[in-house]
Amino acid sequence: MAEGANIAGPSLGAIDRAYSLLGGIAWDGMRETFVKLWSTARQTWKVPVSDRRWKWCLRLCQANALLAGRGAVQPSDLLVLADALWEEPGQQSAIRQGLLDLIDPVLREAEEKCDAAEEQWQKALTAETETAEPKDVIAVISEAAGKIKKSATRIEELRDIARGKGLDTTDLEATLARVQGMSQDVHRKLVTRYTGSA
């Protein structure tokens, strides 16, 4: 593509048609969750949510469901609000965690395990710069590998629990794949240290 070329977006007509479809995306099954969310936003996150803004949040959830090919809003659609409700950058992470507490504690635990795995992955990557002794480097990488593997195993269990309940496991699968990638990376690093090969 030539430099400076315009990338055509959707036409106004297409946007209008998509917007008209939102009214057909059911959300009745989420009314109680929306009420809890509204209360949490105001009381816990200290985010003022006007009636107008709340309607906009509902439309955003409906749009997320529509884009996913669903005819009704489901709990995972509320996660888009983590990018819509915050007013100060520091609120975004807390709001996402609060949303996960409210609608998907299984995914929240999986993300916590992923964060813990990433911390161990970083330790393994910086082991050579943190300690000069080869045996200490191997010990750090080996410990990290074991902890990352435990995180992956727990996320697999959480995925299986969600799958057994008939829930959407897309986000859990993505989180598991990320942790498995870290595990493979650290395992390769450990093998390299043991064998002395590049």
Low-confidence parts lasting 5 or more residues at pLDDT below 50?
none
Order of SSEs: HHHHHHHH
Rounded mean pLDDT is 84
The value of Rg in angstroms is 22 Å
How many domain regions? 2
Number of strands: 0
Major beta sheet summary? none
Short description:
The protein has 198 residues and is mainly α. It has 2 domains: 90 residues, Magnesium chelatase subunit I, C-Terminal domain (Helicase, Ruva Protein, domain 3); 91 residues.
Topology:
Layout: H1 12-21, H2 31-43, H3 51-67, H4 91-103, H5 105-125, H6 127-130, H7 134-164, H8 170-195
List keywords for this structure.
Helicase, Ruva Protein, domain 3, 8 helices, 2 domains, 0% strand, elongated, 198 residues, mainly alpha, single chain
Describe the model.
This protein has helices at 12-21, 31-43, 51-67, 91-103, 105-125, 127-130, 134-164, 170-195. The protein has two domains: 12-101, Helicase, Ruva Protein, domain 3; 105-195. It is built from eight helices and no strands. It is elongated, with a radius of gyration of 22 Å. The mean pLDDT is 84. The protein has 198 residues and is mainly alpha-helical.
